[in-house]
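quick one before i forget lol
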Amino acid sequence: MLMLEGIKVLDFTQYLAGPTVGRLMAEMGAEIIKIEIAPNGDASRGIPIVKKPGRSGYFIQQNRGKKSLCLDLKKEGANQIVEDLIKKVDVIVENFGPGVMEKKGWDWKGVQKINPSVVMASISAYGRESTLSHKTGYDWAAQAYSGLMHMNGERDGPPLPVGIGIADIGSGVHAFSAIGYALFHKLRTGRGQWLDISMVDSMFHMHDVSLQGYSLTDGKWRPFRQGAHHELIAPFGVFRGPSGYIVIMSLQPQWENVCEAIGRPELKDHPSYLTAADRGKQQNEIIRIIETWMESFEDNNAVMEHLEKYRVPAAPVMDPVDAINEPYFHSRGMVRNIEDPVLGPLTIPGFPLKFSDQPEVLDLEAPTLGQHNREVVGDLLGYKKEAIDDLEKIGALFSKDV
């Protein structure tokens, strides 16, 4: 039995934060019914890279294993289909803008009246219950407002966004984990509940030292971006190697190993380098010593092999494309080559969670727009063929082969 086999999810999500939830749950066997709004469906169908209008690699990666139900909610009968589904599902996930679900009566207050035991997760930039709940926002806004962007970049340069959808995917993973615990709670109590997940909150709670450091020093220390090297510890940062960049991370227990590895054992007891704080003050000199030592090697692989012999914590800075051919990622199933029925072969990241009771990888496909209209409305909800034909004729049910 798959981990989430038998769990039905009504997915009102689009773009990235919300679809991340269903993507992870589909990998564990949940039945994901994705509501797409006619005539174009999830807006991510049009996000590059698009090889065929209405079907992008972005959409495929985030929506594999889901069933697409495409509705024109302005047409008679479409809203009733949604409310019939709300009665049947275990979980509802949505990441619409402010007020959208309320207008339909499908917010938590309305959903409770239809299905009191359902678990509902709402993902938004600033949370549904907050002083900023009226604001819309995307990934970079969450990075900025949470303080994450403030911490990223060179010390003397502007704040920089992280170059991937960390706030979107991070909040989606937070919602995914919260849903699991809410379902566990429901098993024990029979009660559903609402999960109000904020992208800003999801990023803000990642601060490890920023808040405590400020409070414990009575405001004398303020968190700030450090650039390529830790401001208080050395060697701890990104070093230029012979064929790219290498991260070396040395705390006090590893300092002796570093000295032995670079052929400078005398540095271990040098009075200027005795503690992490001492080395932090001599950071520029330590960087120069290590980068000069690296120049004696043919390439980064040779540097890494040597550091490994001395058990110095280090890692090459990987280009994600180069990672496709790395044995590690293949051994972990993290590079997945799939065959899309419309676009053909493409490579996507694999499923990061490993379960001993579900070791197999599911063969999933992203749906075409409205591909599962008849299956969902007919098989799950019990609508007769004639009724479905009528809904198609008036455009309440909509489909495309992309």
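fyi Residues 166-189 form the longest helix (24 residues).
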